[in-house]
Fold DUF1360 domain-containing protein.
Amino acid sequence: MLQRTGRRYSAGHDRPLGGYLAAMAGFAAYTTAWATAVRLRGRPLPDRPEPWDVVLTSVTTFRLSRLLTKASVTSPLRAPFTRYVAPQGPAELHEEAQPENVKHTVGELATCPFCMSVWVVSTLTAGQLLWPRATRTAMGALTALAGADALQLAYSALVEKTTGE
């Protein structure tokens, strides 16, 4: 029945539903472990997130997700599951997931900043609940890095516009 559903769903395309199901199960186990750690620690949950924490978490999630999924320096982490295609933007790479079923699913996760951001934001949220000072310090550094990246790109665009180079 599962294979028939997968064939009908995919409409002739290669869609690794089994791999996606495994990734979802892995994510459920991952978040359950974090939730258990938070509960065992006995820290009370806030009534609602502070607006500044939401902004800080958003920028940090963006930057860390791109760093993990696109940066040249983190390509050794992705290499077992991906294939290099070409450069993509400043200090970023375009890679594709390897075709094998499990490697394909992990490769998609490892190259997709949108997919990775779900794991990153969950980790950051747990970190804020378990180790708030250390997590916010690291988040501040990654947010500063995102700001520096934006300034580098703006500076490059300004130089190109004014000099034509």
